[in-house]
Design a protein that fits this description.
The protein is mainly alpha-helical. It is built from 15 helices and three strands. It has two domains: about 35 residues, no CATH class; about 375 residues, MFS general substrate transporter like domains (Growth Hormone, Chain: A). It is about 75% helix and about 5% strand. About 50% of the residues are buried.
Length: about 425
């Protein structure tokens, strides 16, 4: 296993060694005060490729949960508040433990936590299969949240380790594409399975749900195997073991506040969206799935390209654009009158999301020291999941008591405020001519 090491090499000697290196042992040398961080590029590509495939396979159940979880929750008697609780249960564990996980990643490495996260998703998929009550479904989401707490912080930190500053946005976007592509294929298989059994059998939705998640165990297990066999440790190794950066930078704290605010707001509306569309457009699952398909395709191919944009033009602009596009889409949702309008709106919202998220994650890598990346991503994702735990409960209460359109209008206001805060309070971490 190759490890990073910091060495001091005369410039002439560096050029000689580089020219003499073989195609199978290429090194990328980065100059920093006459010290060089030497990284085996071939190994990096192998690790990233296997990480990509692991995320791809593990994401198969994600998309169908977005569609079916609120509807299945209603089927087993859950209220809007309890449906919001399904989403809060998923976010609760990451919100609590991620700050501590980040420090652990910087001390003990990334890969063990990646494996724990993948196995956590596998266990959660098994529990989903047997979830026939509100309590069991909440428990399954809770276990999925444990897997997410470990998996995504390890994934983000490994990407930050592997990518150069000029390519971070692209790499974060590529991992998003892996997740979305897995989600699209998994959703297509899942919904086809559901519709076929509903048409050909008299099975209850609960029985169909059971067999659906048993099938999802197959791709989830493949994702675990890719993580076990194809990834290696990426924790940087420095000569000075006492070197320590300051994780609580002002910029990171400001970003955490913005992410907490906007994350809570966006999480507030998503669990209610399927219910709202069913209530106001009288649309079945099949129509909603077809309406979402163009947006899903966009999200499976656009993030890496938008990541290249943020690598070239900076981080702040894409973050602002994404928040404003999301605000416009949220404002329009209560006024939808057709499935076609919904399709166009979902496409617009997805474009905004794919613009902003790679920039946001790359921003964290830009401002974090090499030795405290895990801690920085732990704090960043802590703020997101804390908001994601609060938002659905607030949205469910507003939907039941203040009107079905109120959560969407409130989300519009919050996202606009978030865009203003990004523009005024954050400093560009990746200048255009960097």
């Amino acid at each position: 296993m190759h490890k990073w090491k910091r060495v001091t090499i005369p410039i002439i000697d560096l050029k000689t060694r580089f020219l003499q290196s073989s195609a199978e042992n290429i090194y990328d040398s980065v100059v920093s005060k006459r010290n060089y961080i030497v990284k085996p590029i071939r190994t990096e590509k192998i690790i990233f490729t296997n990480l990509w495939w692991s995320v791809f396979w593990i994401s198969f159940p994600f998309g169908v949960l977005s569609f079916l979880l609120p509807i299945y929750g209603r089927e087993i008697g859950a209220s809007a508040l309890e449906i919001g609780g399904f989403f809060s249960a998923f976010s609760l564990v990451p919100a609590i433990i991620r700050p501590f996980l980040g420090k652990a990643l910087d001390r003990w490495g990334r890969r063990p936590f990646l494996i724990i996260g993948l196995v956590g998703y596998l266990v959660a998929t098994i529990v989903f299969s047997f979830a026939g009550t509100v309590l069991m479904l909440t428990a399954a989401r809770f276990l999925q949240g444990i897997g997410a707490a470990f998996l995504w912080i390890a994934t983000f930190t490994m990407i930050a380790d592997l990518a150069e500053k000029s390519g971070r946005g692209h790499n974060f976007g590529s991992i998003d594409e892996a997740s979305y592509r897995g989600g699209i294929i998994g959703t297509t298989i899942g919904l086809t399975f559901v519709f076929a059994l509903q048409g050909a059998t008299d099975w209850t939705f609960e029985k169909i749900w059971f067999w659906l998640f048993l099938i999802y165990l197959i791709p989830t297990a493949i994702g675990v195997l890719y993580g076990l066999k194809g990834t290696k440790e990426t924790l940087p190794v420095f000569e000075d073991n006492n070197r320590e950066s300051k994780p609580f930078s002002k910029q990171l704290l400001v970003l955490m506040g913005i992410v907490l605010l906007t994350g809570a707001s966006q999480a507030m509306v998503w669990p209610l969206l399927m219910i709202f569309l069913q209530d106001h457009l009288s649309a079945g699952i099949s129509y909603l799935a077809i309406a979402y398909l163009p947006a899903a395709l966009i999200s499976s191919f656009l993030p890496s390209r938008m990541g290249k944009m943020t690598d070239r033009w900076g981080r702040k602009g894409p973050m602002i654009i994404g928040l404003l596009v999301g605000a416009a889409a949220s404002f329009a949702i209560p006024h939808l009158g057709s499935i076609l309008a919904l399709t166009l709106l979902w496409c617009l919202e997805t474009i905004g999301y794919t613009i902003s998220i790679p920039a946001e994650r790359a921003f964290v890598a830009d401002i974090a020291g090499d030795d405290i990346r895990g801690t920085s991503y732990g704090l960043y994702t802590f703020s997101y999941f804390l908001g994601a735990a609060i938002g659905p409960l607030a949205g469910g209460w507003l939907y039941d008591n203040a009107g079905t359109a109120m959560p969407f209008y409130l989300n519009t206001i919050v996202l606009i405020i978030g865009a203003i805060l990004v523009g005024l309070a954050l400093k560009e971490s990746h200048p255009v001519n960097d």
